[in-house]
């Protein structure tokens, strides 16, 4: 690890100003950043620390709900209001990593963390995510990789909370030297086709301050499910999150998200089209899940993930309909 | 030498046998003997030190002026090293020494092989400095896949023997002396008993199948490494090792110093599983760096290096054919196995097949396939978990074809009386009888299954070890013995045996181990530690006690043989005046107390010899839609001879099961096909079972009094992990009605098995 200067910021605006300078990294929980620095993937000269800045870990129910970006995953997953009103977000936060990591990891950091692709994570592979010319996973060891959008870089997006926030239609309020702005969560993610070296659209010095989630609509139900090989400390093979609004015996609105299947959390519009207007039933759930994976383009070693995504989504839909 | 009639056997099945005992060695205990301490559940002597962080492991050693060593490793799986330029590294701030491990012209044979090393004043500076070493490689073609490596046109991983160059650090370990080698394929090692062709002719049913297992790395919590300090021409090394004396001897030989001037210490150790014998590259390098820098050097590997270069359990591709008569008697077993241990051999898996079930006609043919991958090392029951997985699957396949209960088939063919009893105990505990009705659950996607497997290990332990016991005038005792404690509880075992023989509470016995200045102790491997050490300790304590008796006899004016010791009291039969409790007796000792040094006696040739037996049962839950497997429960029934400490023995059995679950479901070293590099050299993507994935484990110990040594001790470290993966695979197969033929049992492996079974006419 290269020597660096640690700058504890007093306010988010100060942090934003510092972070806008070249060769500067932002550190909240530091869970992912330190791993990357140790492996030499990131070698910042300055690290701006924000975890201690007060006032940014508040959870207010609203409506709309406002969650400070410095709230830890542990706090979000155990917060009674979040569990009651936004159960999918609580579940996503709860299933991540380990208790120790959840005590340190923040919501903002969880959204901004880099992917777990093993080629990206090892310094000796100069992959596209690091500005190199090759995606080693395309022809290499790709069991855990993407089954959608596999043309440029086939890593999967690592954030579980992003999957839930996409299902809720959340938005991000940010601070930067240019001022404040609001980013709809849909616009937060960057596809590798646009730029494989980044996963989000934040500008230099831009910091997520608050995550805003609209109040649930009457009759809506949200469920998040992840499938992991191990129960202790493992990344999901696939995730599914659905936010269904049922009234008058029919699905009025549906947001269906698949996680860990593509370089960004994937909204399964094919499934949503089948669900909206339909009467909730096991058959509809099966049909929607089938449609959600119909355009998958798995790699040489991960065809099984297509099936897992279908099964997990079908189960998640059935639970949301029950 | 004397002969004594002993009652030997187990659980009510004892028989009398006349056994020849060594001079001055105590007779093995009778099954009716009432122990004061031995066999009970005794907390580790060092448990508190460990959980409070007070225990100083070798990796924790910090010395004044100590430097940090770091090795540079080859990024190429195969290359000729053209040059190594250390000059830029030597000029880096804080760097005190740098050296080449590979010389120009030599080859590297796997990605991760050691090339050069530095020592600097901080570990960060050492890491920076290895980045400044300039190495010119000429990459050559390589092969990391076993099937590819078998092909005649495959790149040659090892040089033909004649071309082997001296100084090549791996030349010495390129195993398989005297075996033929063709391309990358070495062997076969063959074993033949009876006539398998004839055996298959006699059979009514035949099954055959190919079973594939992955490469598993040892992943001990404490990584490999040493702290090395020179004082003049004397070297002291704190090592994380399973064999302090083998570290001493290797360092002495390689560095050309007398063994008498090398001192190795392992006070506490964080696991080894077979990969920590000898000084190894990192130990030798640290000692050389320390000598060059004139300062102590600490060189411990990081987790990535651990995965790449410190050993592993080889992979295997095992073809098995088995025949049996219609009533279930095995008539022939035939195994052909290819395995890769990277640049190392020793990949055979025939142990279980040759030694568990009785069969008159057996043939095993074993080949090592060399690949450009990190070399294998002995790992907890080398060859056995792989072999057991294939053998036990074959037994289940036979049972299915014969229409027999798999357990009944095993009982019919198992020659071990102890294991048949273990099978019966385990079957009862797991509820074997109802296993078929429990397959279906309320959730139609979830199936339950129960499977079983057997373990065999070899009743080992032998001469070499020595121990000294001193009895002080205050009645306390001290035992010194150069064994190291891997974390198994060896320190506590030493104390218990001495305390038992002297009839003392454990607190009155001081134990010193883990130091080559102490009497020679065994290396901890092959499950031989306790059977080697325990009888040695007992003999030393026994002889020291005899010396107390001699002092008393002199005072009482009787012959020492008239003084008996029982329940902590010395007495002379029929003379109420000649009677002293331990403490009063010891008060009669001279100021220096009494001491005895004893050597481990030979194993008794006429004792009740057997292979160590184990049987395990696993219950699993399988999601047939996702292929996910959860192990619900494992019942592990093991013969551990006479148990010294029930608590740590059960703990070892649990550890073996946990490692077996991890091997069955998760662990897998993955090498990138196109670059030959390991892509998961961490504990995130190299998946190891975690707390929430560990099943309920019921460890049941079956004591056996075999009379082979004075304490009836056998080891448990290895057998405990042998049958777990096989039992789990059989449980999964039972649950889904489809055969699992490869490890790890990933979701896709289960889904493929289901598909294969489905295409063959559906799943029951």
User: How many distinct beta strands of chain B?
Assistant: 32
Largest protein interface? Answer: A-B, 29 and 31 residues
Number of strands of chain A: 12
Rounded to an integer, what's the Rg of chain B over CA atoms?
A: 28 Å
Q: In one word, what is the shape of chain A?
A: globular
Which runs of chain A of at least 5 residues are low in confidence (pLDDT < 50)? none
How far do the termini of chain B sit from each other? Answer: 63 Å
Oligomeric state of the chains present here: heterodimer
Helicity level of chain A: 25-40%
The largest sheet of chain A has its strands arranged as 4-5-8-6-7
Specify the number of helices of chain B: 18
Radius of gyration of chain A: 19 Å
What does the average pLDDT of chain A come to?
97
Largest sheet of chain B: 7 strands, mixed
Q: With helices defined by DSSP (H or I, 4 residues minimum), what is the helix count of chain A?
A: 13
Helix share, percent of chain B: 25-40%
Q: What is the residue-averaged pLDDT of chain B?
A: 95
Question: How would you sum up this structure in a few lines?
Answer:
The complex is a heterodimer of chains A (322) and B (764). With 322 residues, chain A is α+β, with helices and mostly antiparallel strands.
